[in-house]
Design a protein that fits this description.
Umud Fragment, subunit A; 233 residues; globular; 27% helix; LexA/Signal_pep-like_sf; 10 strands; two-stranded antiparallel sheet; Mitochondrial inner membrane protease subunit; alpha+beta; 2 domains
Length: 233
Amino acid sequence: MSAAKPLPSRYVLLKAMTALEAAMSDLSARTAAGARLSLGESAGVALSKFREAYSKPLTSVMYIAGAAMAPSLNKQAQEDAAAVEKLVVRLIPRPSPRTIGIGDVVAFSSPLDAQGQHVMVRRVAALEAHEMVSDDPEEPPFRVPPGHCWVLADNPAMEPPDVPSDPRLPQTLRTPQHLIPLSSILGRIIYRVAASDAHGPVTNSPAAAASDAPVVEAEVDVESLTAGMDGGS
């Protein structure tokens, strides 16, 4: 039996930092809720939460349908409407401009789904405080509000109108569909699998690519992800 492959040191550090943030966030939430813990109790709670968070993977797997992100993702959907592609998502528990960058491909809860069960995938085009200028000269420029980002589909032919024109629609449906709260982001897409011979890392911002590299190395098991898949283009 061969020895297990050692985990990259940067991956171990990322796991530890993620677990530490989870532990501190949990303690802060308890304090805000009025919990009064002694130093020993706080340490015990933090250690328990740290261990729990550290034991969890930094990624999950989802599927994408449709051609909105083609040709970057699910390219085959441009010819086959039923095509789907498997995606590896690096989970981001507390998204912010520090963890999300322009150019990142992100999965997020759809702003049009009040239940938050519909997940969409788009590329970040702008972050909070960035000025947006419309192609329509009659539309004044505006800045992306704090705590939000502007996302776009890679396939412009699949983009919906920015704002439905009917004022009788609920306010949530009159909000630009490209403007989403950072808090709705579930994670960043770091790997795609279309077939056993068609898979690879997803192009994100340079900073994200560097940060995600050890996660891809440690958690992306291509053999497992492509098991049972046929070859493709």
